[in-house]
Every structure is written in structure tokens, then in C-alpha cells.
Design a protein that fits this description.
By secondary structure, the protein is mainly α. The chain has helices at about 35-40, 45-55, 60-85, 90-110. The protein has a domain at about 45-110. The longest helix is centred in the middle third of the chain and has 26 residues, at about 60-85.
């Protein structure tokens, strides 16, 4: 054990016994070591909301408020899929498809 406490099992992450959002780089599955907001609060939804809000907020200077609200709404969907499936594969595919539709196709069409 690397010094981190083990998470208690909950209904959100039955496959790992831990509901934090840290991924294992080799398997794209959640880590079993608790760190960050989830460890402090014991609440996976709050642990997901904090980085989601920060991620959304950093888009304001570049994209403006209107586009940032759309980015935030999409981020909620992607985060919910991650929490539901407990794997990064689906959110990565969603992100890829979103970028293709939002950036690649429009630039290819002129």
C-alpha cells in the first residue's frame, strides 16, 4: 500500500470498491487508492463536480460565457457516463466524436 487509505465500497463503484476519479494508466479503470476531494468528502458526486466546475471555468476567457455553458453541459454528460460506466473508454470516444463533429468536419467543409 502506498500510504493512501483504502476507499470504502459504495454503490457507485462496485467493480473497484473505490469511487474516486483517478485512473490507472494501464487499464483505464479507476484506481483503488483514495486521493483528493473524494477522500475528503466521501462523496463521489462532489469529487466529480469540483474538477468539472474548474474545467468549465477555465474555458471562459477563450470561448466566452455562452460557449462555456455548452462546454459545461457536455462535461456533465461525459462525467455522468464515466461515473455510470467506471471506465474512461466511453468518455474518450465521446470526446473524440465531439471534436470530429465540432472541429474536423467544419474545417474540412471550408
Amino acid at each position: 500500500m502506498s500510504g493512501h487509505r483504502r476507499c470504502r465500497s459504495d454503490s457507485v463503484a462496485p467493480r473497484t470498491g473505490c469511487s474516486n476519479l483517478i485512473s490507472n494508466r494501464t487499464s483505464l479503470q479507476p484506481s483503488t487508492d483514495c486521493v483528493g476531494v473524494h477522500e475528503l468528502t466521501g462523496n463521489v458526486w462532489l469529487a466529480a463536480a469540483v474538477p468539472l466546475v474548474v474545467f468549465t471555468a477555465i474555458h471562459v476567457p477563450l470561448w466566452g460565457v455562452g460557449a462555456t455553458l455548452q462546454i459545461g453541459a457536455w462535461s456533465v454528460v461525459v462525467t455522468a457516463v464515466y461515473l455510470w460506466r467506471r471506465t474512461l473508454v466511453a468518455p474518450i470516444i465521446m470526446h473524440l466524436l465531439n471534436d470530429i463533429v465540432g472541429f474536423v468536419i467544419p474545417s474540412a467543409m471550408g
